[in-house]
Write a structure and sequence with these properties.
Number of helices: 6
Strand order of the largest sheet: 1-3-2
CATH superfamily: Winged helix-like DNA-binding domain superfamily/Winged helix DNA-binding domain
Number of strands: 3
Distance between the termini: 36 Å
Strand content: 5-15%
Structural class: mainly alpha
CATH class: Mainly Alpha
Shape: elongated
Order of helices and strands: HHEHHEEHH
CATH topology: Arc Repressor Mutant, subunit A
Length: 118
Protein backbone atom coordinates (compact mmCIF):
# COMPACT_ATOMS: atom_id res chain seq x y z
CA UNK A 1 0.00 0.00 0.00
CA UNK A 2 2.88 2.36 0.74
CA UNK A 3 4.11 2.23 -2.86
CA UNK A 4 0.60 2.96 -4.13
CA UNK A 5 0.43 5.99 -1.82
CA UNK A 6 3.78 7.18 -3.22
CA UNK A 7 2.55 6.65 -6.78
CA UNK A 8 -0.68 8.52 -6.07
CA UNK A 9 1.25 11.34 -4.42
CA UNK A 10 3.36 11.76 -7.57
CA UNK A 11 0.22 11.56 -9.71
CA UNK A 12 -1.66 14.25 -7.79
CA UNK A 13 1.42 16.44 -7.41
CA UNK A 14 1.94 16.34 -11.18
CA UNK A 15 -1.69 17.26 -11.82
CA UNK A 16 -1.63 20.24 -9.44
CA UNK A 17 -0.25 22.26 -12.33
CA UNK A 18 -3.06 23.97 -14.21
CA UNK A 19 -0.99 23.79 -17.40
CA UNK A 20 -0.53 20.03 -17.12
CA UNK A 21 -4.24 19.58 -16.38
CA UNK A 22 -5.07 21.62 -19.47
CA UNK A 23 -2.73 19.43 -21.55
CA UNK A 24 -4.46 16.29 -20.24
CA UNK A 25 -7.83 17.88 -21.02
CA UNK A 26 -6.82 18.72 -24.61
CA UNK A 27 -5.44 15.23 -25.19
CA UNK A 28 -8.60 13.68 -23.73
CA UNK A 29 -10.74 15.72 -26.14
CA UNK A 30 -8.61 14.85 -29.16
CA UNK A 31 -9.75 11.95 -31.29
CA UNK A 32 -6.18 11.26 -32.33
CA UNK A 33 -2.67 12.41 -31.52
CA UNK A 34 -1.77 16.08 -31.30
CA UNK A 35 1.60 17.49 -32.17
CA UNK A 36 3.39 19.52 -29.54
CA UNK A 37 2.90 22.53 -31.82
CA UNK A 38 -0.86 21.94 -31.97
CA UNK A 39 -1.01 21.65 -28.19
CA UNK A 40 0.99 24.86 -27.79
CA UNK A 41 -1.36 26.68 -30.15
CA UNK A 42 -4.53 25.38 -28.46
CA UNK A 43 -3.20 26.28 -25.01
CA UNK A 44 -1.64 29.59 -26.02
CA UNK A 45 1.69 28.45 -24.56
CA UNK A 46 5.18 28.29 -26.01
CA UNK A 47 6.27 25.00 -27.51
CA UNK A 48 9.24 24.61 -25.10
CA UNK A 49 6.93 25.12 -22.12
CA UNK A 50 4.47 22.51 -23.40
CA UNK A 51 7.38 20.09 -23.90
CA UNK A 52 8.57 20.77 -20.36
CA UNK A 53 5.13 19.90 -18.93
CA UNK A 54 4.83 16.86 -21.19
CA UNK A 55 8.05 15.52 -19.68
CA UNK A 56 6.39 15.27 -16.25
CA UNK A 57 3.25 13.69 -17.69
CA UNK A 58 5.38 11.21 -19.61
CA UNK A 59 7.26 10.19 -16.45
CA UNK A 60 3.93 9.04 -15.02
CA UNK A 61 3.16 7.35 -18.33
CA UNK A 62 0.00 9.47 -18.65
CA UNK A 63 1.11 10.68 -22.06
CA UNK A 64 2.59 8.74 -24.95
CA UNK A 65 5.00 10.49 -27.27
CA UNK A 66 5.64 9.32 -30.81
CA UNK A 67 8.42 10.96 -32.78
CA UNK A 68 8.42 11.43 -36.52
CA UNK A 69 11.53 13.24 -37.64
CA UNK A 70 11.74 16.43 -35.63
CA UNK A 71 8.07 16.43 -34.66
CA UNK A 72 6.61 14.85 -31.54
CA UNK A 73 3.02 13.62 -31.42
CA UNK A 74 1.24 13.13 -28.11
CA UNK A 75 -1.69 11.04 -26.98
CA UNK A 76 -3.29 10.37 -23.63
CA UNK A 77 -2.57 6.96 -22.13
CA UNK A 78 -6.12 6.28 -21.00
CA UNK A 79 -5.23 2.88 -19.53
CA UNK A 80 -2.65 4.46 -17.22
CA UNK A 81 -5.09 7.20 -16.25
CA UNK A 82 -7.65 4.50 -15.35
CA UNK A 83 -4.95 2.72 -13.35
CA UNK A 84 -4.41 5.79 -11.15
CA UNK A 85 -8.16 6.29 -10.76
CA UNK A 86 -8.56 2.67 -9.66
CA UNK A 87 -5.64 2.94 -7.23
CA UNK A 88 -7.24 6.02 -5.67
CA UNK A 89 -10.66 4.34 -5.43
CA UNK A 90 -9.04 1.28 -3.84
CA UNK A 91 -7.19 3.45 -1.32
CA UNK A 92 -10.42 5.23 -0.38
CA UNK A 93 -12.38 2.00 -0.02
CA UNK A 94 -9.61 0.46 2.08
CA UNK A 95 -9.47 3.54 4.29
CA UNK A 96 -13.25 3.44 4.72
CA UNK A 97 -13.04 -0.23 5.71
CA UNK A 98 -10.36 0.59 8.31
CA UNK A 99 -12.70 3.02 10.04
CA UNK A 100 -12.76 6.77 10.46
CA UNK A 101 -9.51 8.67 10.60
CA UNK A 102 -9.32 11.08 13.48
CA UNK A 103 -7.64 14.41 13.03
CA UNK A 104 -5.36 15.86 15.68
CA UNK A 105 -7.03 18.30 18.06
CA UNK A 106 -7.32 21.84 16.74
CA UNK A 107 -5.19 23.14 19.60
CA UNK A 108 -2.33 20.93 18.42
CA UNK A 109 -2.72 22.19 14.85
CA UNK A 110 -2.50 25.82 15.94
CA UNK A 111 0.67 25.03 17.92
CA UNK A 112 2.27 23.53 14.81
CA UNK A 113 1.28 26.57 12.73
CA UNK A 114 2.75 28.93 15.34
CA UNK A 115 6.05 27.03 15.38
CA UNK A 116 6.39 27.18 11.62
CA UNK A 117 5.51 30.86 11.38
CA UNK A 118 8.34 31.90 13.69
Amino acid sequence: MISSVRDLTRYFRTLTSASRLRIVEQLARARDELSVGELAERLNMSQPLVSWHLRDLRRLELVRIRRMGRQAFCSLNRERLRHYQEMFAQLLSQTAADGPVTAPPLAHASTVVQRHSQ
